[in-house]
Every structure is written in structure tokens, then in C-alpha cells.
Specification:
It is found in: Mitochondrion inner membrane. Its main location: mitochondrion. It holds the Pfam family COX8. The chain crosses the membrane at residues 39-58. The chain is mainly α and 67 residues long. The chain has a domain at 40-67. The protein contains three helices and no strands. It has helices at 3-15, 35-58, 60-64. It is flat. The termini are far apart.
Length: 67
């Protein structure tokens, strides 16, 4: 592929309307989420993301060993 072809493809991709991923609205929220619910959600998010990463980093030397 030549550069002008790639450039045309890129421009056409930018022009196309993509389906919105999130339902964004300027209105206030329908349901109020309490601080406790937010804390639980954030804790679950951090554990789900950082837990496996921390496990791998903590056991990195074990993974390096060839048995």
C-alpha cells in the first residue's frame, strides 16, 4: 500500500460515525450512589486490576526459575 492510500483510509475512518460506547448525558443522574457504594466499587475495581498484576510481580522470581 502506498502512503496516499493509507492516508485516504485514515481520513475515511475519521469521517465515519462510530456507535457511542457510553451513554453520556448532561442531565443529573437518575439514581444517587452513596459514598459507601462508590468505595466498594472502587475497591473491587482496584482488586480486579491490581490483584493479578501484584501477584505476578510478587512471584516473578518463581516464574523465572526453570525446573
Amino acid at each position: 500500500m502506498s502512503l496516499p492510500t493509507v492516508s485516504r483510509l485514515f481520513r475515511s475512518a475519521l469521517r465515519t460515525q462510530l456507535v457511542p460506547v457510553a451513554n453520556v448525558s448532561a442531565k443529573p443522574a437518575k439514581h444517587h450512589i452513596s459514598a459507601g457504594e462508590q468505595a466498594i466499587a472502587m475497591t473491587a475495581l482496584f482488586v480486579a486490576i491490581l490483584g493479578p498484576s501484584g501477584w505476578i510481580l510478587a512471584h516473578l522470581e518463581d516464574y523465572k526459575k526453570k525446573e
